[in-house]
Amino acid sequence: MEHVDQPVEPPPADESVPACTFQVKNLSIWYGEKRAIDNVTLDIASNAVTAIIGPSGCGKSTFIRALNRMHELVPKTRVEGTVLLQGEDLYLNDVDPAIVRRRVGMVFQKSNPFPTMSIGENVVVGLRLNGVRDRKFLNERLEKSLRMAALWDEVKDDLHKPGTSLSGGQQQRLCIARALAVEPEVLLMDEPCSALDPIATAKIEELIYELKARYTIVTVTHNMQQAGRISDYTAFFYIGRLIEIGPTTKIFTNPTDRQTEDYITGRFG
Amino acid sequence: MHFERAHRHTWRKIKSGLASTIAFVSALLVITPLSLVFFHLVVNGAGSVNWDFFTKLPAPVGAAGGGMVNAIVGSLELLALAGAIGIPVGVLGGVYLAEYGSARINSVLRFLADVLNGIPSITWGVVVYGLVVLRLKGFSAYAGGLALSLIMIPLILRTTEEVVLLVPNGYREASLALGVSRWKTIVHIVMKTASKGIITGILLALARVGGETAPLLFTAFGNRFWNHSLSQPIAALPLQIFTYAISPYDDWHRQAWAGALVLVTGVFCVNVIVRILTRGRAASVV
Description:
The complex is a heterodimer of chains A (269) and B (286).
Chain A: H1 2-5, E1 20-31, E2 34-45, E3 49-53, H2 60-66, E4 77-85, E5 88-89, H3 97-103, E6 104-107, H4 119-129, H5 135-148, H6 152-155, H7 168-181, E7 186-190, H8 198-211, E8 216-220, H9 224-230, E9 233-238, E10 241-247, H10 248-253, H11 258-264
Parallel strand pairs in A: 3-8, 3-9, 6-7, 7-8
Antiparallel strand pairs in A: 1-2, 1-4, 4-5, 9-10
Chain B: H1 2-45, H2 51-55, H3 69-99, H4 103-118, H5 121-136, H6 141-166, H7 169-177, H8 182-193, H9 195-210, H10 214-217, H11 237-245, H12 250-277
Helix pairs in contact in B: 1-12, 3-6, 3-9, 3-11, 4-6, 5-6, 6-9, 7-8, 9-12, 11-12
């Protein structure tokens, strides 16, 4: 895709909006005795796509899940360090993880529309369960979210059909629409295309490119070409540590660290 | 060489035939008692299942006719009482085991529930007799309902736990990632996804206790007339069958057959409903 070849401009400095959506400082995460993330410090740029790459088990998923506290679902996790979202610490004692997750949405590797709900119900379920009753508002948000997820034209006549009746790629876009419907500031994507065919993958990638105008996107990917195509910044993780982060073009053409180069050129991983 | 192969082939065919015959005969043996029971019930009971049976009170000894309407209604009342206690406790307990609690405590609770499931049902009758009947100084519908509910709870608890555990974690994560609270996720996403399985467990538990006699012997006690208060003894179909079957009167024996036929048909219907509910279970999640 064309946009990757252009030099990446850092997001414009605006006084009301910090250029960084997340500021992660000295983050370490343990599962029981095992340290999954080891002293990671990085900033995640606003309105840009940041790709997290690295070999299996390097802590990519744990890191991305730490950005909306989803990793806490695993028992016996422990966190050290800070994660600031627009300057606010996510891990202060009085912060409700549900509120964090409303601001930081997530799309998963395996598409997971709720099987008991129709396409339409799936999109607005987040609003409904958070207490929104207004029919008109829900319908507006339904259409808006499906349009943003580039799914509206395909499903507008089938909103009452089960969400699970859609194809794999459509289901994943439905999940994106569902995440967008609660109007988060950030969208985390944990290998969103790894279960999809190339055509469905291309659609999601196109969608990610369009969404970054409004959202900060952090995506985990196993696919180096994909990271090259869709991301503005790339972070390379290895055994729980951040080896290198930088503009994607730089990481892919002229990485600073030897391990990054070895991984990108396919010498391991 | 060629001959050898052909010979082996025949021997294999014989073994295969033998195995499938044995399996077929075993299957027949399983079905035979069921068909015999049903056959006998129909032969002996069908003649006495008539309009009166469903609408009239039992006739006095010696008088012809009469029915079991009080026992049928009584059984339904007892099931309602048992369900009112057993369903919420069993379902919530099962959800707790599947969603909350520590692994160690849960395995103890699970083991205890399995032990409870194995306790002979008359034991529950004795327990409730000691705890409730003696204290309140009388048999009552409440006591009968309580005894039945105690049998239902571990049954429903275990089936609920199993079907809730079958709900893939992806749905919980998807809901929590939308900023939905834990309990709303459990009620609106997890339990809704598992609802067919939960309802199936409840229906099977109701069918099971609907036929219980022993726990009602010294709790609900039975009643030849209408029950006007739940704190009074109440009739139940299995109890009535029991009383009539051990009586010396032919009239009553016929009525007992009819009662048994109605009871078995009721249980059968519940099972059919369960089959319909769980049809296409492989296609959906739970």
